[in-house]
């Protein structure tokens, strides 16, 4: 039996990989840090090492581990797969002398990872190739699960861990779930996958049945769930207003409650993407009102090397973003107008952009149009006091990652950054 060692500081990601490897007949061990990894490489001598690139300096970095491995003749030739949230070409070149065979960026594409494992270990892996888009995110302490095209069992396994990750990040004590099924027509052959979907949502969130809504127009799904005692209490609806009813808490006046939010989201759910291309709908509406304290240590590893652009004509907002992220070692460049940012963006790469919509000269929509034309693929978070339906929908159609409503709080900015950039799953 082949033996793989997984070195990653995320307990959820370690467990995910260990489970997937074990399910395919691979003997898998895990290490919780670089220091732990060094010891286990020496003692276990695995056939393959899968390691996170962003290990903490305090407990031995990825290069500390690789150098120790190379020094030992018995372990020097062990192949390595590196997983990274962000890595540039120079950093990849630095890995070459250490028998690193492949570098993957998170979130991992499971089919390509398994193909590499098959190549390196000579062990075949079964991969579900069903087309499927699955996203999970949080608004107002409700977990939204968006599924389009179909149900892929491997992606449902990822969803299990993503839900757990979100619950931990937002410290959700009473999980409430809305599952939104878009562009999927089910038949009786889909019954096992429907059971897997519902079991995944319920087991990973531990939500009570009465706190789960499924938004769909599919008649088979309605009949399926009506005939299952295990799911009795889950409400199936075709109108988002009913799905939100009883789940959404009041929003302290910073965004219209109920009908307005339902109307905004409803226009993007249960129909094909307006561009005609498959896409993740990414309905990330952020009026996170229960602003729990987030430790700066929680976000240092994610944000310390980021380059952030804050594009807003309000000096107070610029300073708020700058002060929030400078505390975790992140460089923030501020711009008072869209044209200033667009000029700088031609010569500088930003990992994340906070963008105001309403600016006097070049507004946020003009910036979004220009970024799209340039092929800009980094996340953009819109910051605005404007919550009108047409404005929000237009911004999402132009590819924004999230929409945060002013006034802003530092914890909200940090949490949303963690959700978008800490992409284990």
Describe it.
This protein has 16 helices and 16 strands. It has 425 residues and is of the alpha/beta class. It folds into three domains: 119 residues, Rossmann fold, CATH 3.40.50; 154 residues, Transcription Regulator spoIIAA (2-Layer Sandwich); 126 residues, Response regulator (Rossmann fold, 3-Layer(aba) Sandwich), CATH 3.40.50. The strands form three sheets. It has a six-stranded parallel sheet with strand order 11-16-15-14-12-13, with helices on both faces. A five-stranded parallel sheet has the order 2-1-3-4-5, with helices on both faces. Strand 12, helix 12 and strand 13 form a beta-alpha-beta unit. Helix 6 runs parallel beside helix 7 and helix 12 crosses helix 16. The longest helix has 18 residues. It starts with a strand and ends with a helix. About 11% of the residues have low confidence.
